[in-house]
Amino acid sequence: MATTVASKAAASPSADDIRLVITASSLGTIFEWYDFFIYGTLAASGIIGRAFFPAGNETVQTLLAWAGFAVGFGFRPLGAVIFGFLGDRLGRKYTFLVTISLMGLATAGVGLVPSAASIGLAAPAIVILLRILQGLALGGEYGGAAIYVAEHAAPGKSGFYTSFIQASVAGGFILSIAVVLGMKSVMSDQIWDDWGWRLPFIFSLVLLAVSLWMRFKLAESPVFAQMKAAGETAANPFVESFTFPGNLKRLFVALFGIAAGLTVIWYTAMFTVLSFLQSTMRVDETAAQLIVGAGAAAGLFWFVLFGWLSDKVGRKAPIVIGYALTLLCLFPIFWVIGAAANPGLAEAAKRAPVVVSGPHCRYSPFDKVQADTCGKLLDYFSKKGVAYKAVHAPATVVTIGGLTVDDESPAGLDVALAAAGYQLDKVVPSVGGVAAIMGAIMLLTALSGMTYGPVAALLAELFPARIRYSSMSIPYHIGTGYFGGFLPFISQYVVARTGNPYAGLWYTMAVVAMALLVTIFGLGDGRGHADGGNPDQGA
What is the helix (H) or strand (E) element at residue 147, kind and residue range? Predict the structure, then answer.
C-alpha cells in the first residue's frame, strides 16, 4: 500500500512550489506559536499573575500563572487526537487552517478578558478556558505543518526542509518578545501595566489574517491527495495508530525518547533562562527580554544546520549527542549565566550564604501564610530570590555569612542582606556580562538545535502515511504537553521548596537522561522519505 502511494507521489513539486510550501507553513507556525508563547513571555514578567491570579502571595501568584501556562500544554494531546483524526481523514491543508483560526481567536480573547479585580474568579476561569482552546489548536498545528512540508520534500531533503518548521517554533518565541518590547517602547510603564500588555494578545488577529491569506494559496499535500484518490486513507486513524503492526513501539520511542527530551531542553533554553534572569538574578525585565530574544534569534541557524546535517548522517546521531551534551553542560551553562547576570548577587551568595535553622522549617509555596516562624523566614527568602539552606535545629535562627541576624522582621532581614552585600535591586548586566549570557544561550540553542532540528523529518518518516498525522501528533504533544508544559511550574516549585536557584534544572536532567536511554536502545537510524511511509526504518 505504501509502495503504491510512493510511486504516485514520484512527481516532485517545482522549486517555486517548495518555496511557497516552506514559507507559508513556516510563517503560520511562527504565528501560531507566537499566540501560544505570548502568555508565557508575559507570565515570566509577573503581569499575568497580577491580572488574573491575585493570591495575596507572590510565590503562589507566580505558580498559578505558570499552572495556567501548563494547562494549555495539558490539552495538546486531546487536540492531537481530534485534529490528527481530521488530518488523516480530510487532509493536511484544511485541518491546519482550522487549527490556526482557533488559536488566533483564543489568543485575542485572552487580551479581552477583564481582570480578576473586575470580575473576580470568572477571570482566571475564562483565561483557563481560552488556554485550553489554544492547547487543542496547537495539538493539531505542528503535526500538520511538519507533515505537509515533509510530504513535499524530495529524497535527501526532508531534514533540511522541515528544519524551517522547527526553527519557526523558536521564531514564535522570538516574535512574542519582539512584539512585547516594541509595544512597551511606545507607551509609558503605567499604561503598559494598566492595559497595554493586552495589545500583544489582540495583535494575534493581524497574524491570523496573514496566515490564512498565505495558507489558502496552498494545495493539498500530494501524498494525501493521491492516497485519497486511491481510496487508501485510514477509516479510523486513531485506532489504527495503536493497531498498525509495530506502531506501539514507534509511539513509545516518539513519546519518551524524542518528544519528552527535546521539549525540556527547548523550554529550559527559552523560558527557564528568561524567568531565571528576571526573578532569581534580579535582571531588569526589558534587559532580560532583549538578551534572551537576541540570543534565541542568533541561535535559529542551529535548527536548520542540524536538520540539514541529519539528511547526511541520519536523524539519530545529532539527537543522541545533543542529549549527552545536555547532561554534561546544563548546570555549568546556568552557572555562567548566573555569575554574568548579577555578579554582586552571585558573589554575595558564595561569600555570605544564608542559613535558616529551626525545629521544623516546613515551607509550602502554596500557603498564603506559613505555619511557623521558620516557614515564614523561608518564604521571605524565596520571594526575594535569595538562595538559602534550611537546617534542623532546636531554635529558629538566621545566619548570613556566619553572623546571626538579631532582627528577623522583613525590614531587619533587608538590612542584614544589604550589609552582607546582597544586591536585590534590578540590575542591567555589563557589556561583558551580556556577552557571556549570550554565549551561554547560544550553547543552549545549539543543544536544542541538535535535538529538535531533525525531529520533524524523523517523526514524519517514522510512521506510515495513512496514519501519519495522528501517529506523529499524539506522542509529540503528550511529550511536549506534559514533560515540557509543566517544566516552568515544576522547576519553579522545586526552587521555592529548596532555596537553591539551580535546583529546578534537575527536572530537565532527569527527563533528558530517560530520553537518551530510550533513543539509544529504541530508535533506528533511518534516512527515509515521507512520500508514502516506511514504518520499518525508524524503530
Answer: helix 122-150
Which residue bears the cell 531554635?
395
Task: Tell me the three-class secondary structure of 43-68, residue by residue.
Answer: HCCCHHHHHHCCCCCHHHHHHHHHHH
240: burial class by Cβ within 10 Å (0-12, 13-18, 19+)?
Answer: middle
Q: Whole-angstrom Cα distance, residue 164 to residue 50?
A: 36
> Which DSSP letter does residue 395 get?
S
Residue 358, beta-bridge partner list: 392
Which amino acid is residue 24, in one-letter code? A
pLDDT tens-place string over residues 311-325: 999 999 999 999 999
Residue with cell 506510515: 464
In degrees and rounded to multiples of 5, residue 503 shows phi and psi of -65, -30
- Helices 58-74 & 15-43, crossing angle to 10 degrees? 150
Distances (CA, A) of 425 to 30, 32, 501: 35, 36, 17
Task: Report the interhelical angle of 505-522 vs 487-498 (nearest 10°).
Answer: 130
The pTM (predicted TM-score) of the whole model is: 0.81
Query: For the segment 26-64, what is each residue's pLDDT rounded down to a tens digit?
Result: 887 787 778 767 877 777 667 887 878 776 656 666 667
Q: How, if at all, do strands 388-392 and 403-404 pair?
A: unpaired
**What are the grid coordinates assigned to 487, written together?**
517544566
Contact 363, 375 (CB under 8 A): yes
